[in-house]
Structure formats: structure tokens, C-alpha cells
Design brief:
single chain; mainly beta; Immunoglobulin-like; five-stranded antiparallel sheet; four-stranded antiparallel sheet; 1 helix; 26 strands; 32% strand
Length: 346
């Protein structure tokens, strides 16, 4: 329980550095993983996000050699020596060049790690400082077997370095960017879906950088996609003899993803004869829309002068569109109206 009288630091007196660290922790976002539930003062540590994510980015030297360069930036590192010790703010104010140890001989592969590390004598050891450093990995018989080395307990991982036998320089292709990003509480966290936290607090928002979409935390502990804007109408690629009607005022067949994530079809087409109960391959939806398909599309169309039921089905993997005819046989000149057909779960 908090004390009633104001603590000393509220009167600007002397106080332990841990107080500042805990204040910083209170301003940063929740980490969002089950393992952190038992230590609620933990934060999501990592690099401060920025335009094109250049903060503390690891890159090769202009003329590649056995060094890497870490750009300027801010990093937040949680103390993992003991629960409740707070968060460190580490600032690199200019490019820093780090030396990578020489490569091994024939048949020797390794993976090194570039990290921002904090050493605090209050909780462990006798050194109090933070460093940008390269942690050397152990050798393995193949590149696939090379594993990331053991890391200091209080560090933020910035990059993995792939080192091959007798290698004499670190090029861009040897550097894997593995930074996490940390934001202020309530801010949107940019993160790849493969490393996204799965225990978001209600309302916490992630931007999934690899799929270009937002998700948010729900009250029941699950996540859901945020409602996007509808995408632009995109022409459908029609197959065989299928094509637009060519009549004045008719729109060529097209598709889009709606705000709820379903697919909507529009336009008018005509093509081949289809007997009652028969099927026909119509075409495919645009490739860019296929990853968003989660439903089969079934609908009712008005054909020609006589109303007739047709079913339009879209394969959620290939995007192939097929038509199943209803009561009345279709001719090659029958119009099939796609307007108002939406993706639904069946």
C-alpha cells in the first residue's frame, strides 16, 4: 500500500535511481506476453520507433570489413536481474563502429549478436554502465546449425550477424535486423506478425509491418483486426468467353474488400451457355485480394429479362470464381449481375 505522506523525491530531495527507472516504466507500453503476467512492472523493451526505423539500426561499413555500424537512437531496456527494478533509457548520440571478431577456419560457422546491454552493480556484478557490443557465437559445422549466443540478462537485441568460414568482411547480406520496438503507453506498436505479443491489454494496438494492418487487444485476452477502409474496386480477370456486357451504363466485373474484411463483387458480365444446375469457370479475383479472402462468396444475380438464381463461389486459396446456374438455362448472351454479392461464411 502506498504511504500517505509524499515520498522524498516529490520534494526534490535525494532518492535512488530506481525511482526514476520505475517512473520511466510507468510511461511505457505493456509487453503483451504471458510470461510477463507475473511481473506486472515489466515493459516492452526495445528501440524507439521512427520513420523508416533508423534508430539503432545495424549496417555494414561503407567499405565492408570486420566491423558494423550502429546508428544513433534511443533504447529502453528492462532490468531482468530482479523483478521491479525498472527500465533504463540508453541513448546513442552518433554512429558507433563495433568490431566483429575474426571468422573461423574451414567448416566453421557462427552467429554473432549485436546488442545494447546494461550492467548495473545494484542488482548484479560490480560494473554500472551500458554498452553497444557484439556477442560472439559458438562455432557450428554448418550455417543452419549456427545458433545465437547466450545474451546478457539486461539487453535489447539489435541484429544477428552470419559469419562463414574465413570471412573477411560483414556485408549487408550478413546482417539480420531483429530489433523490437517500444512505445509509450497507449501508442501503436510496429511489429512483424511473427513476433507480435499475443496478450495485449484491452485496446492496445499493433501495426503488423509485414501485412500492413492493425490489430487490437480485446477484453477476453484475444486479438482482432481493426476495421479497415474498403479497398478500391479492382477489375476481375475473366476466363474464356466471359466478358463485360458492353451495354451503355454497365460496369465491367470488379471486386473489392469491404470494411468488415469480406469481399464484394460488382458489375455485369455475360459469356457461355450454362444449363440448369450446371457449372462454369468465370475467372479469378485480383491476386492482391486473395490473401484477404476468408469466406466463400455466394449470391443471387438477376439474369437477362427473366430472374434466375445463380451462385458465385470464390476459392479462398486460388481466387478462382465459379458460377452454378439455377432454374433457367443461361445462354451466351444472358446478363449476370454481380452487384451486391458479398463474401459470407457458410
Amino acid at each position: 500500500m502506498a504511504e500517505i505522506n509524499p515520498p522524498a523525491w516529490m520534494q526534490a530531495g535525494s532518492y535512488p535511481a530506481r525511482t526514476d527507472r520505475l517512473t520511466i516504466s510507468s510511461l511505457l507500453s505493456y509487453p503483451g506476453f504471458l510470461v510477463d503476467e507475473s511481473t506486472p512492472t515489466r515493459i516492452r523493451q526495445g528501440v524507439k520507433p521512427s520513420y523508416q526505423q533508423q534508430q539503432l539500426k545495424v549496417r555494414a561499413a561503407p567499405t565492408p570489413n570486420m566491423t558494423v555500424i550502429v546508428s544513433a537512437g534511443f533504447c529502453f531496456i528492462d532490468n531482468h536481474d530482479s523483478g521491479g527494478l525498472g527500465t533504463y533509457v540508453c541513448v546513442n548520440d552518433t554512429d558507433r563502429t563495433l568490431t566483429v571478431q575474426p571468422a573461423g577456419g574451414a567448416g566453421q560457422y557462427r552467429k554473432d549478436a549485436v546488442v545494447a546491454s546494461v550492467y548495473d552493480a545494484e542488482s548484479a556484478g560490480s560494473v554500472s554502465e551500458w554498452r553497444l557490443e557484439v556477442i560472439q557465437g559458438t562455432y557450428a559445422a554448418s550455417a543452419g546449425a549456427a545458433a545465437r549466443p547466450s545474451l546478457p540478462p539486461n539487453c535489447a537485441l539489435l541484429a544477428d550477424l552470419s559469419i562463414g568460414p574465413s570471412q573477411t568482411s560483414i556485408a549487408a547480406g550478413n546482417i539480420a535486423d531483429v530489433r523490437n520496438f517500444s512505445v509509450a503507453a497507449g501508442g501503436i506498436l510496429p511489429v512483424p506478425s511473427g513476433t507480435a505479443p499475443n496478450r495485449l491489454h484491452p485496446g492496445q494496438v499493433l501495426y503488423l509491418t509485414n501485412s500492413d494492418k492493425f490489430v487490437y487487444g480485446k477484453q477476453d485476452g484475444t486479438t482482432a483486426d481493426m476495421v479497415p477502409k474498403s479497398t478500391a474496386w479492382t477489375p476481375i480477370t475473366l476466363a474464356g468467353a466471359w466478358g463485360p456486357t458492353g451495354l451503355a451504363g454497365d460496369v465491367a466485373p470488379c471486386a473489392r474488400i469491404t470494411q468488415d474484411g469480406s469481399i464484394e463483387l460488382g458489375g455485369t458480365m455475360r459469356g457461355v451457355a450454362v444449363n440448369s444446375g450446371g457449372n462454369a469457370a468465370v475467372g479469378t479475383v485480383p491476386a492482391a485480394l486473395i490473401p484477404s479472402l476468408t469466406y466463400l462468396v455466394r449470391g443471387v444475380g438477376a439474369t437477362g429479362i427473366t430472374s434466375n438464381y445463380v451462385r458465385i463461389t470464390i476459392d479462398p486459396t486460388s481466387g478462382a470464381i465459379s458460377l452454378t446456374n439455377g432454374i433457367t438455362a443461361l445462354t451466351a448472351t444472358t446478363w449476370v449481375h454481380l452487384d451486391g454479392i458479398f463474401g459470407r461464411a457458410y
